[in-house]
Amino acid sequence: MMIMDQALIVQNTVHSPVEVELRECANCVVGYVLDGRMEIHSNKSVSEVSSGMVYCLGVGAHYVRRIPTQETAYRELMFHYPSEYLQELLLRLSLEYHVNTPNMHTDPSGNKSQLPGNYACAPAWDALRRFFDYVDDTLRMTHDPVTEKFQLMGALYLIVSGEDDLLRQMILSHSDPVRSQFIRIVSSHIFDNISIEDLARECNRSLTSFKKEFQSIFHTSPHQWFLQKRLYHARQLLISTDRSISEVGTSSAIPNPSHFIKLFRKQYGITPALYRSLHRQIQNGPEKRAKSHTKVAQKVSETAQV
């Protein structure tokens, strides 16, 4: 498990393929893949971030897999920062340089661009790619806090004023410190036995206000959101560990085995044991790692038809 909670720039290198891992972001993250590729796993899809692409992760939990090539290690740059920093930067751009950035992109038809989840990724354009290469070269020689602060400012400016609408939208959607703090508190309790009333108190909201704000941010109820997060975590444990079904349920904050199996079947239409078995059949087949979640779904469909 990786925990990102500081405002700085990090160079990450992975020499051997790893399974999907939980990356908990206490702050927002902008990343750039230098070599290799990364997969960002969500409940409904897997997004591939290859060399030369930028990704943005919002506050909260993300499941990623970093994959080196046969010739080179996986390498990435990560800029992580609090929402307060972005808010300050946007204010300075507006007051000192008269640069105003819209909060949400709208195309000519009036439709808002849709993010795939609490993240976005896109190919870097020339100016952004040259900037990240320069930062990578600089960090090889020195790690100076003042220099890194200006580099972080440069990365954020290039994205919010740049060519990709989804990246811009992702960055700007986390420019509100109050909203980010709400998400941070909620996300920190995914696997805790905490009541909605206690969670509302920790967020300094009345129960009614908490539920309303939760619905506005996550577009579902607290109960459903926590359940989906826990079951998705269980799904990742089933395919990346050899833990028993009971241990997977306990690690996902659903300690009653029969209840866990019932909830998993209701969510995914298949038992945890069968899900793991089908995934392993695919992994041992001729097309290893090729969109395994999609293949499992197809296999389940075929089994149901039989």
How would you explain this protein's 3D organization?
A hairpin with a 4-residue loop joins strand 5 (37-41) and strand 6 (46-50). The protein contains twelve helices and ten strands. It folds into two domains: 2-172, Sandwich (Jelly Rolls), CATH 2.60.120; 224-305, Arc Repressor Mutant, subunit A (Orthogonal Bundle). The chain has 306 residues and is α+β, with helices and mostly antiparallel strands. The radius of gyration is 21 Å and the shape is globular. A five-stranded mixed beta sheet has the order 1-3-8-5-6. The chain has a five-stranded antiparallel beta sheet with strand order 2-9-4-7-10. The longest helix is centred in the last third of the chain and has 19 residues, at 222-240.
User: In whole angstroms, how far apart are the ends?
Assistant: 39 Å
Overall shape = globular
Count of individual domains: 2
Give me the side-by-side strand order of the main sheet.
Answer: 1-3-8-5-6
Radius of gyration: 21 Å
Helix-strand pattern, N to C?
A: EEEEEEEEEHEHHHHHHHHHHH
Based on secondary structure, the structural category is: alpha+beta
If classified by CATH, what would the architecture of the largest domain be? Sandwich
The fold-level CATH name of the largest domain is Jelly Rolls
The tally of beta strands, per DSSP, is: 10
Look at the structure and give the mean pLDDT. 85
Sheet with the most strands? 5 strands, mixed
CATH class of the largest domain: Mainly Beta
Counting DSSP H or I runs of 4 or more residues, the number of helices is 12
Strand content: 15-25%
Contiguous uncertain segments of 5+ residues: 1-5, 104-113
**Helical content (DSSP H or I, runs of 4+):** 40-55%
